[in-house]
Specification:
Structural class: mainly beta
Helix content: under 10%
CATH class: Mainly Beta
Mean pLDDT: 82
Distance between the termini: 22 Å
Length: about 80
């Protein structure tokens, strides 16, 4: 499954979680993939050059950073839409 030639970061929200979050700088979004079946289950957008993402140890919050801007956004992975 090719999502973007410029996917920068992949992250699981918590240990054992089957959803993978992919930061895509080319399309300025975050793609959410169900790793059990390799299906795209959602997209978070718009963002301006998302470059990195990580989750708190409990998986309650995700942090997305943006290339060149020095800024970040916080997401709730339990209800990202």
């Amino acid at each position: 499954m090719l999502l973007s030639a410029f996917a920068i970061t992949l992250a699981f929200s918590t240990f054992g979680q089957t959803k993978v979050y992919v930061a895509n700088q080319l399309t300025n979004d975050i793609t959410i993939i169900d790793a059990d079946n390799n299906m795209v289950v959602g997209t978070l957008a718009p963002f301006n050059m998302p470059s990195n993402l990580a989750f708190t140890p409990d998986g309650a919050k995700g942090v997305i950073t943006f290339a060149g801007s020095g800024s970040a956004s916080i997401i709730d992975p339990t209800d990202p839409f």
